[in-house]
Design brief:
Shape: globular
Oligomer: single chain
Radius of gyration: 17 Å
Helix content: 25-40%
CATH superfamily: LigB-like
Order of helices and strands: EHEHEEEEHEHHEHEEHHHEHE
CATH architecture: 3-Layer(aba) Sandwich
Number of strands: 12
Length: 292
C-alpha cells in the first residue's frame, strides 16, 4: 500500500502548478465575491483563542467545486479560520461522489500530497474515532478519486504550511442516522480543543438561479439553527440536490453536542455569479459555527 495519496484533480478543479495555484488562491480571496484580501494567520494556537465561552474549536461548511466557481465563497471560511489561530488537526468530512468503497471511510494513507506540499494524516485520532464509530474503516477506493476533500487542502497548506495534520473522512452513507452517530463520535474528540472540523458540501444543483437561491435558503435556515433533522427533512421533502448533507449534518450534531447554539452564514453565491450563466447553477455557501 502506498504511503502517500497523490492529487486526483490537480489541473482540473484547481491549478496543478504551484505558482499558478498560489496566484489562484490569492484571486479567490481578492475576488469581488471573496472576503477582499489575503488573511493573516493568528500566531496563537486555536485552543488559546478567546471569545464568549469559546472552547478552542470551530466548524465550517465549505464548498468543493472548481476554484473558478466556488473558490471565492470558500475563501470566506478559510479567512475566518485563519483569524482564530493555528489548529493542531483539521478534520475533513466530505461526500463520496463515486460511491466506491466503504460507506464510511478513513484515509489509508499516512500523507496526502498537494502541489504546495504534503500533509500528514492524524492516525492516532483516526484510530480513536474508528473505535467510537462502527463501520468507519480505512479505505483507498473511497478516497482515491474523490475531490470533495482534496480541493480544500491547498487552502489549508496556503494558510498553515504543509505540517498541519488532517483527518479525512468520506461518507457514501449520508443518512441522518449515520450522521448522528458520526457527529456524536466527533464531539467526543473535537471537544478536547485545537481541532477544526470542515464539512465539504455544495448546495442545489442545476436549477435556475432564483430557484436555487430559494431552495438553498431552506437548507441554510436549518443549518443556522444547528438542526440536523430539519436539514434532512428539507433535503427529502423538497428534493434538494445537495451533495454533502451527511457531512453537514454530522458537523451540526457534533457542535450542538458541544453546546453550540447557532451557525453564522459567511457567504452565499451561485455558479451564475462567476460564470454569468444563470439558467442552470450550483449553490455555494460558507458557514461558521463555534462551540459555546
Amino acid at each position: 500500500m502506498e504511503k502517500v495519496r497523490p492529487p486526483a484533480v490537480a489541473g482540473q478543479f484547481y491549478p496543478g502548478d504551484p505558482e499558478k495555484l498560489r496566484q489562484k488562491l490569492a484571486q479567490c480571496y481578492r475576488h469581488p465575491l471573496g472576503p477582499g484580501g489575503l488573511p493573516e494567520v493568528s500566531p496563537q494556537a486555536l485552543d488559546q483563542a478567546e471569545g464568549p465561552a469559546f472552547i478552542g474549536t470551530a466548524g465550517y461548511i465549505v464548498p468543493h467545486a472548481g476554484y473558478d466557481y466556488s473558490g471565492p465563497v470558500a475563501a470566506h471560511a478559510f479567512g475566518c479560520m485563519a483569524r482564530l489561530g493555528r489548529p493542531r488537526v483539521v478534520a475533513l468530512l466530505g461526500p463520496n461522489h463515486h460511491g466506491l468503497g466503504h460507506a464510511l471511510a478513513l484515509s489509508p494513507w499516512e500523507q496526502w500530497r498537494t502541489p504546495l506540499g504534503t500533509l500528514p494524516v492524524e492516525t492516532t485520532l483516526a484510530c480513536r474515532l474508528a473505535e467510537l464509530m462502527p463501520g468507519l474503516v480505512p479505505d483507498a477506493a473511497a478516497h482515491r478519486h474523490e475531490h470533495s476533500l482534496e480541493v480544500l487542502l491547498p487552502f489549508l497548506v496556503h494558510l498553515y504550511g504543509p505540517s498541519i495534520a488532517i483527518l479525512p473522512i468520506v461518507m457514501a452513507d449520508q443518512s441522518l442516522a449515520v450522521a448522528q452517530l458520526l457527529g456524536e463520535a466527533l464531539a467526543s474528540i473535537v471537544g478536547e480543543g485545537g481541532i477544526l472540523v470542515l464539512a465539504s458540501s455544495d448546495f442545489s444543483h442545476y436549477l435556475a438561479d432564483p430557484s436555487a437561491r430559494r431552495e438553498d435558503s431552506y437548507a441554510l435556515q436549518a443549518i443556522q439553527a444547528l438542526d440536523a433533522a430539519a436539514l434532512a427533512r428539507v433535503v427529502r421533502e423538497r428534493g434538494l440536490n445537495m451533495c454533502g448533507p451527511g457531512p453537514v449534518m454530522a458537523l451540526l450534531v457534533a457542535f450542538r453536542a458541544m453546546g453550540a447554539a447557532s451557525a453564522r452564514l459567511l457567504a452565499y453565491a451561485t455558479s451564475g455569479d462567476t460564470s454569468g450563466d444563470r439558467t442552470s447553477v450550483v449553490g455555494y455557501a460558507a458557514v461558521e459555527v463555534h462551540a459555546r
